Amino acid sequence: MPSCSQTVAGIPVVDFSNADCLKPGTSSWLSARKDVCRALEELGCFMAILPSKVPPELQKTFFGAFDELFNFPVDTPEKPFRAGYITSSPAQKGIGIMNGKNPKETQEFTHHFWPDGNDQFRESVDLYARVMAEIDQAVTRMVFENYGVEKYHDDHFQSTSHSL
Questions:
Q1: Number of CB atoms found within 10 A of residue 22's CB
Q2: Which pTM was predicted?
Q3: What phi, psi does 97 have (nearest 5°)?
Q4: Most buried residue, 32, 70, 84, 103, by most Cβ within 10 Å?
């Protein structure tokens, strides 16, 4: 069952290790929903543990590429491109894929940085984006259910885009 009793640096932790946590109506779902809503009400965020959804290899590939991304010559991310590159100072940079769950967008992003391709990065971004969209949909449904407005969930979710 999910538990919100742990914290990391004061941030509540919700453990989604049990596959039933993401199945609406199950006791695990109801328990996770309670923990998610409590964390959001109290702090506005939580840390999700998703071991079966985001295996260590995916985390390593996905997050490992960030060193390379942020170490490209400055002119590479600043070339005209519709994905986001934000820098307000040398100590603060941001790079984003506007619709991360669209494989075409991740392909264009990958090609922008690696003109010869980087399939491992692109595939890990595609998978990570799908997993995050699935978790977002489940958590959003939990919140809508908790407040008795679940009939609005599908319309809301269809109008949502996912940036990475």
A1: 21
A2: 0.75
A3: -110, 120
A4: 32
Q: Which of 39-48, 63-72, 101-110 has the lowest mean pLDDT?
A: 63-72
The pLDDT score that the predictor gives to residue 138 is: 92
Are 162 and 133 within 8 A, CB to CB? Answer: yes
| Two structure tokens written together for 2 | 């999910």
Q: What sign for the dihedral angle of Cα 15, 21, 22, 25?
A: negative
pLDDT tens-digit series, residues 79-120: 545 555 455 556 666 677 877 888 898 898 888 888 898 898
Question: What is the mean predicted confidence (pLDDT) over 55-60?
Answer: 81
pLDDT of 2 reads 45
Strands 47-49 and 11-15: parallel
**Higher per-residue confidence, 82 vs 26:** 26
